[in-house]
Amino acid sequence: MGTLWLAILATGLSVSIGTAIVIVGFVGLALMLLIWRFGADLERERASLVLGAPIRRAHRPLPPTGFFQRWRVRVTDPATWKDLAFLLILGPLGIATAIVYGAIWSAAIAGIAAPRSPRRHPTTPSSAAGGR
Fold it and tell me: Which domain holds residue 17?
């Protein structure tokens, strides 16, 4: 999942930042903020299944009214930015883990599939005697 989050966030954030000059990017950035908060909640849910204990959300509570006040709380919440950092770190960790697992499985399959031959070719009696 980490590689997926890296691809989604890298693409979405770069497009949103790039188009922020024409105002459309701010809508994209707002959507990306909601997506990465959703992604962090999803990862918390997955971790709680593995650990067997619920992991609570660390976000500040949103005010009941006021569109801009709600967005100000979301943007200034340190947990939001920690969520982004966590999801961005998951990508390289997922790639590194896949490489390690791939190397281990490749070595195991190569060890099983390799022919059981001695290191040196044994000399046959005819070649030892000088015959062909």
Answer: 2-112
